[in-house]
Amino acid sequence: MGPRDPRGRPLLRIVCFAEAPADARVGSGLGDRILAEEGPDPVDAARLPGLRAWTGLDSALPFTKLQTTCARRGC
């Protein structure tokens, strides 16, 4: 499962902002490719799911809707 923090969560939590679930899937897929190919220590793409978690600002959500953030803070 890869390295975990004391609570069992992946060591790297990446927040995803998107307009819709499909955008979040595409964005996280591109992010994974960049991490695997150009990360500080390139890792095997197959290991990424155990090393990182894509979440929204609320870690229980898979992404944060950009329009929600803009409505709260102004964009």
Quick recap:
Helices cover 40% and strands 16% of the residues. The protein is α/β, with parallel strands linked by helices and 75 residues long. The chain has one domain.
Which structural category fits the helices and strands? alpha/beta
Strand order in the sheet with the most strands: 1-3
User: Any low-confidence stretches, pLDDT <50, length ≥5?
Assistant: none
The share of residues in extended strands comes to 15-25%
Give the overall silhouette. Answer: globular
Strands, count: 4
Oligomer status: single chain
What's the number of helices? 3
| Nearest-integer average pLDDT | 80
Largest sheet: 2 strands, parallel
Helix-strand topology string: EEHHEEH
- Termini Cα gap: 38 Å
What is Rg? 13 Å
The domain count comes to 1
Written account of the structure:
There is one protein chain. This protein is α/β, with parallel strands linked by helices and 75 residues long. The chain has one domain (12-73). Helix content is 40%, strand content 16%. It contains 3 helices and 4 strands. The protein has helices at 21-38, 48-51, 66-73; strands at residues 12-15, 17-18, 52-55, 64-65. It has a two-stranded parallel sheet. The termini are far apart. The mean pLDDT is 80.
